[in-house]
Amino acid sequence: MDISIRVAGEAGQGVQSAGNLLVGALASAGFHVFTAKSYMSRIRGGLNWFDIRIGNRELFAPKEKADLLVALTREAFEILGRETSDGLILLDSHEAQGAYAIPFTQTAKEIGNAIMANSVAAGAVLAVLGLDNKHLMEYLRKQFHDKPAEVVEQNIAAAGAGEKLAQSCAGRLPAAPEGAWDSVYAGADAIGLGAATAGVKFVTAYPMTPSTATLNFLAESADRYGILVEQAEDEIAAINMVCGSTYAGAPSLTVTSGGGFALMVEGISLAGMLELPVVILLAQRPGPATGLPTRTAQGDLNMAIHAGHGEFPKVVFAPGTHQECYAITRHAVMMAHKYQTPVIILTDQFLQDAEKNIRPLSEELKPVDCFLSAGGREYARYALSPDGISPRAVPGGEALVVVDSDEHDQCGHISEDLAHDHLPQHDKRMRKMIGLTAESFAPSILGPPGAPNLMICWGSSYGPCREAVEMLNADDNIWTLLHFSQVWPLNEDAARQAIGERSRVIIVEGNSTAQFASLLRQLGLVGPCEACLRYDGLPLTADYVVDKVSKPGNSGAA
Length: 558
Known about the structure:
- With 558 residues, the protein is α/β, with parallel strands linked by helices.
- It has 19 helices and 21 strands.
- The strands form four sheets. It has a seven-stranded mixed sheet, with helices on both faces. Strands 2-3-1-4-5-6 form a six-stranded mixed sheet, with helices on both faces. The chain has a six-stranded mixed sheet with strand order 15-17-16-19-20-21, with helices on both faces.
- The model has no long low-confidence stretch (mean pLDDT 94).
C-alpha cells in the first residue's frame, strides 16, 4: 500500500492545518508517513499544497503525483486535478464535474465557524481511505486541549460531518496499516533538537525562509534547554553576535538562507581568523537574490564550500534524513569546537519542511565536548601545534585571551612579521584540514556494491534516490546508490573505493550546473558521467529520477 494525498488551496485557507490533522491521525493509526509542502511567498491567496504520503513500509520521499486531491478552491481543482493519478478528487463545492463535491466550508459554517473546514476535509479523507475516524478524534482532542471545550467538540463534529459527506466514495483507497512510530518530526525540528541537546546556549538569526522553522523550534525550546534566542536586526549582526558569544565560551548557532548567508561571509572569514567554533545552518532555496523564497534547491553548494576571503579550514555537512539532521547537527557542534573553525550544515526547504515518523529522537540534554583549556599565566591563544589546534580558553579566568581580526602572533597580538608569524599561523590553521579530512564521513552505500551502474547524490536527495534505486533494481540488481552527507572536506579514499569502475555513473542534484559532479571531477574521483538535475523549485521524487535515468536522452552530461 502506497498512497499520496494532496491538500491544496489558498494561503490562509487551512491547507497546513488540514495537512497537520491528517498527519497526526494517520501516524497515530500506524501508517508510515512522509510529507512535502509547496507554498507561495504570500500570506493570503495563491495556490499552495501539502502532500502526505502514507504506506505500510518506511517512506523516504514524496510522490510526483497524488492519488487523492482535496481541492479547497476551484483553482486547485483545475490546475492540480490533471496531475492526480487516478482522478479521485474531493472539491469544496455543492456540485462539480470530474470530482466529488463536498461542501467543506459551508458545512463548517453551519457547525459554528468556516475555519473548521480543515476538520471537515480531514474527516472526509479518512472516509475515502476506509478508516475509522477514532484516531482523528483523539488527535483533535490532543491538538485543541488548551481550547474551550466548545471548540474541541465543534471540530470533532466537523470531522464527523466530513466523514458522512464522503460516504459516496468511502473505501475508494483502501488502506491497511502495519504499524509505525507515531513520533513525527520535520527536518527543521530534528536539526533544532540536535542543537539543543548538544548544549547550544545562544541562537541568533534574522528570520529567513526556510531556516526560520529551526529558529522557531529553538525559541519554543529555549526555557527547557536554557538557550538564549535573539532575533538580530540583520544577518551581518547575527554572524558577528555568534562570533562574540563563542569567544565568550557559549556554544552558538545561527540559521539563514542563501541571501542571508551571502551577508554573513565576512563574519565567517572573521571566525576563520579568530579560530572560533561557529556553526551555521544554511537552508537552501532557489536564487539568485530573493529568487523563490518558499521553494527548494541545492544551488548553494559552491557558495558554502568556498565562502570567505583568504584560506582557512571549514566543514560542510549535508544531512539526507531526519535522523541525520539530528545526529549531524550534534556532530557539527562538536567538530566546530574540536577544530575551532566554522562548520556549515547545508539543508533545503524540502528537508526542512518534510515531516516523517521515525523512532523518537533523544530529548535528553547531553552537551558535546567544547574542548576548552583552563589557560594560565603563560597562556598563548594561538600557540603553534602539530595538528593546528591551539589551546582555547575563554575570558574571565586566569588566562589573558587576546584575539584580533588581523594576522597575529601566538599570543594574539597584531603582527606583520611575515616569516615568524604570518606563515606559521597560516600553516597552523590549514593543518586542521588533515584532521578534518581524516574524520570526514565516508559516503553511505545502498544496493549491491559492485553493480555496473552507480547513482551518486548528496544531502536531501538521498530519499528520492534511495527509492529510485529500489525501483530500478526491482528486476535486476544493476544499480548502487552512493550518498554523501558530508560534502567538504570529502573522504576521498573512501569515495574513490566506493565509486570504483562502473559502466554508467549518474549524479542527481537539485541545481542546473551539477555542482557536486564538478567537485568530484575536480578531485579526480569521477570521469565522464551523466547528470539528473531538477531546478524548478519542486523536490526530487523517485518517479522523476527513474524517468530521467531509464529513458535514453533524458539525462545530460554532468
